[in-house]
From TrEMBL:
<dbReference type="Pfam" id="PF12706">
    <property type="entry name" value="Lactamase_B_2"/>
</dbReference>
<feature type="domain" description="Metallo-beta-lactamase">
    <location>
        <begin position="75"/>
        <end position="245"/>
    </location>
</feature>
<protein>
    <recommendedName>
        <fullName>Metallo-beta-lactamase domain-containing protein</fullName>
    </recommendedName>
</protein>
<dbReference type="InterPro" id="IPR001279">
    <property type="entry name" value="Metallo-B-lactamas"/>
</dbReference>
<feature type="compositionally biased region" description="Pro residues">
    <location>
        <begin position="252"/>
        <end position="262"/>
    </location>
</feature>
<dbReference type="InterPro" id="IPR036866">
    <property type="entry name" value="RibonucZ/Hydroxyglut_hydro"/>
</dbReference>
<feature type="region of interest" description="Disordered">
    <location>
        <begin position="252"/>
        <end position="277"/>
    </location>
</feature>
Length: 277
């Protein structure tokens, strides 16, 4: 997509604000304590400016630019991690994204929530300091409020109530595919997925003309979630965005029968956006 004013485009789009791991790419350790030979990806991460460099990646996060029937745009962000400020400086300025209207959280780990304090710079400016709606499970909220007491009204000091702090309007969602919710006019279905065997995180299914499932930091799909987004359930996906936190290798006897996959040496496009029909 050409650099330009998103609001002038009568089409929805997905913008990948980050596709890196929890530490981001490059890894600081790879650069200051290089292995022999040095890590190729992290070495290449310094060879081009970040904007054009597919090997320079922030924490995993998606911006949905939702263009409604009346051509009004709403901007919804999934996850606000440690590198959120950098993502705003790089991509919001590039695509001329004027604000964030809603935030969805997949879970409460640092790479998904530690940028919440910077939300104040992307909220719609009103004189009444209206808070950004933030959708998360009760467990996620409890954990985030412990780390950011000023995000909850109870934790605000007198000065902070009227000042420029990141205020959010908590909207509790359920770990349940059958409990959809609407954020900034767009309907989302929560998709519970395993993030390790003892922890459940959320992915999200959204879109009318184009069904999109966004699932990050996942180790395994529970069968109920897998069925929910399956053809059999009538929800065949147009686009699956999948980020896994572990590589699940086939058992050795199966692996031995399969030739290793060929890995393309091409670099991905630097432009991280997708236009939706
Ligand atoms: Zn590295
Ligand atoms: Zn995590």
């Amino acid at each position: 997509m050409e650099k330009g004013e998103r609001a002038a485009v009568d089409q929805s789009a997905l913008i990948f604000l980050g596709t890196g791991c929890s530490s981001g790419v490059p890894s600081g350790r790879c650069l200051i304590q290089p292995s022999d030979p040095p890590c190729l990806v992290c070495s290449m991460s310094l060879k081009l400016p970040p904007l054009n460099n597919p090997n320079y990646r922030c924490n995993t996060s998606l911006l949905i630019d939702y263009c409604q029937i009346n051509n009004e745009h709403n901007y919804i962000v999934i996850d606000v991690g440690k590198s959120f400020r950098e993502q705003v400086l790089r991509w919001f300025t590039f695509y001329k994204i004027p604000r964030v209207d809603s935030v969805l959280l997949t879970h409460e780990h640092a790479d998904a929530v530690l940028g919440l304090d910077d939300l104040h710079c992307v909220k719609q400016f009103h004189h009444d300091v209206s808070p950004i709606p933030l959708y998360a499970t009760q467990d996620c909220l409890d954990s985030v409020v412990l780390r950011f007491p000023h995000l909850s009204k109870k934790g605000l000091t007198k000065h902070e109530v009227t000042g420029e702090v990141a205020q959010v309007d908590w909207r509790i969602i359920e770990n349940d595919c059958e409990k959809p919710f609407i954020a900034s006019g767009l309907q989302f279905y929560p998709l519970p997925v395993m993030h390790g065997e003892d922890y459940v995180a959320l992915g999200f299914l959204f879109g009318d003309k184009c069904k999109v499932a966004y699932i990050s930091d996942v180790s395994r799909f529970p069968s109920s979630t897998e069925y929910f987004i399956s053809k059999g359930r009538g929800r065949e996906l147009d686009l699956l965005i999948l980020d896994t936190n572990s590589i699940i290798l086939p058992p050795p006897e199966i692996a031995a029968e399969q030739p290793p996959p060929e890995i393309a040496a091409e670099q991905p496009e630097a432009d991280p956006s997708i236009q939706l029909p």
